[in-house]
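Task: complex structure prediction.
Instruction: return structure tokens for all chains below.
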Amino acid sequence: MNTLAEENYLKSIYHLSMGDENVSTNQIAAALNTKASSVTDMLKKLADKALINYTRYQGVSLTPSGQKIAVSIIRKHRLWEYFLVEKLNFRWDQVHDMAEEMEHISSEELIDRLDKFMDYPQHDPHGEPIPDCNGNFKSSELKPVSALELNNSGVISGVRDQTSSFLQYLEKQELTIGKSIKVMEIIAFDHSVVLQIENKKEVHISREAANNLLVAL
Amino acid sequence: MNTLAEENYLKSIYHLSMGDENVSTNQIAAALNTKASSVTDMLKKLADKALINYTRYQGVSLTPSGQKIAVSIIRKHRLWEYFLVEKLNFRWDQVHDMAEEMEHISSEELIDRLDKFMDYPQHDPHGEPIPDCNGNFKSSELKPVSALELNNSGVISGVRDQTSSFLQYLEKQELTIGKSIKVMEIIAFDHSVVLQIENKKEVHISREAANNLLVAL
DNA sequence: TTCACAATTTAGATAAGTCTAAATTTTTTA
DNA sequence: TAAAAAATTTAGACTTATCTAAATTGTGAA
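Output:
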């Protein structure tokens, strides 16, 4: 098995590489609140174990076996979050740190039984998809935000229009991949939409933008 | 908070000191599958934190704050075991190692909610009492084995006759404090009893012995 | 295209927890 | 009660994961 530190590195690399490309040492250091030199050390160790592809100064990506471990940890994290909210009645904003500890409980059988006990939930309390016991995510049919109804929520998962002007606009609005959004208001006359991002800040986007921003769930 | 290693030492010391007196370095080393020298190092550390009373060569006992931590870990362990058996349908002999990991999940609120979710169970799947959120064990009224009926089970928790000959006899039969027993047979003519120890070996004890051996539950 | 700066890696150190081997203390026993 | 045996502690070393400071590599701007 892998150490707690290794698992956390793999998970971070997985999350950071959602925007595909290689992940940089500094990105990982920032995500894990550690120093770049510590990251370098760990990257060598993970590369030795064949869990990442690593060449000096070039950043890293997960190998298939590294990816498998990362997905398994994410599955555990999300199932425990679901448990904490649905069974123990925690609020969705209280569960992250607890799940951060629980995701390292090693037994796969335990997590599969927990999955069954909760009747195979598809999404965690934050709307993130929960991978199944084979590591497959539900083929999330992405929908444009414009197809959502009032109070629907989802996770930003893609864009239709890939021009850099649109992407730059999204970046500025903090409407980036992985963020969860909720439809707060739909303006009838121009079909523009008010979204709440990560349960915090609200933004108002045009019908055209809503047509081109894809969400999962 | 305390490290995982510290928590495991405190738990071991707690369990080993059930027979009251001071616990020896070698006893702890045996329980934790480590070396006596490692134990000595840790004892110094725990003594510095005022969690144990320690004088060189004299063994250790828990201070009130050390005891409090140990009981809290035991509470977590037993509640998780109960969860695994009652909610996830594991067998009682499968859950120990998993609970060994889960007992280190730090949140007290989590464990209190889990306790409530399961409706405040009094005993874990092995019949051990579960301390409440204040660390109090249900005042387990001890019964002599002779008062049990067929198929009843319990955990050996004390003796009436404290002569060393009786204690030595119990030691030899492996009928020691903490072992769980089940009544397999009661011989009508002499009231002797056949017990199964820890779901394994069976022993046959006299009416007199059964009268003097106390179990909880 | 070169140079300055940013990113990354290396070198050397630290803390936790463990180990082996040697030294010390306690206990047993003759 | 003194020597032998057992238990315990100390000394010194190792591993993991981290850090700071210095060295190296890559890259963007002039």
